[in-house]
Model the fold of this input.
Amino acid sequence: MTTDARPLAMVTGASSGIGYELAKQFLAHGFDTVMVADGQDIRSAAGSLAGLGGSAIPLQIDLADRTGPGTLQSAVNALGTPLEAAAINAGIGVGGPFIETDLAQELRIIDLNVASTVSIAKWVARDMAARNSGRILFTSSIIARTPAPFQAIYGASKAFVQSFGQALRNELKDTGVSVTILLPGPTETPFFEKADLLDTKVGAEEKDDAAQVAEQGFTALMKGEGNVLGGSLKSRTMGLGSNILPDALGAAFGRRLSEPGSADQDE
Done:
């Protein structure tokens, strides 16, 4: 349940990793928070955050299903409290050569990372713009900045989120709605195992703390900033450097990180 005294936030992909830590940030800052994920563990994740300040409201919804965003909208509307903040964070990936990876998996990436992001943003942005109040956070990735061999569909999906988020930020600049795009570097989450990337250099190397990334994203959201590079100084420097790399060099660098078997290769 929500209260009239507390604002309402929503975080998708909230059962683990950056999404879980974002929910923790919202709750600790007094937001009642809708936590969304496709697995049953969203209930235990929400339960583990009880007592932080706001109420955690778990919703088990598969947002990769084209009916999922509509189900989520109905569930949030039923709470009777408008969203003051939405972190559209859910995302999945798959690693490996494009000619060998499973098409069904890759289409599911597009359905979740791209189609559901657009569908959720459509109703969230409309509602916020009608009230001239609200904050939207999109989770992209520094992988969005350059071509991503062996993560071709995931990288392209995050480039979409980056471009889409910045376009929406500009469209809403004269309203009371702010849009922030979070671009984390490699972060300690279940992503790399699920994406079959553990035998790659990026999968094997030390990663950033999800709590740090979430705090950086939350702080930027509350300040109304546009882009925020998340994670360690190393990751943020890598993100800045990728802005000036030609595509061919960026692709070569990405290949070194994500090519299968690269975890065992010498520098």
About this structure: The chain is about 45% helix and 15% strand.
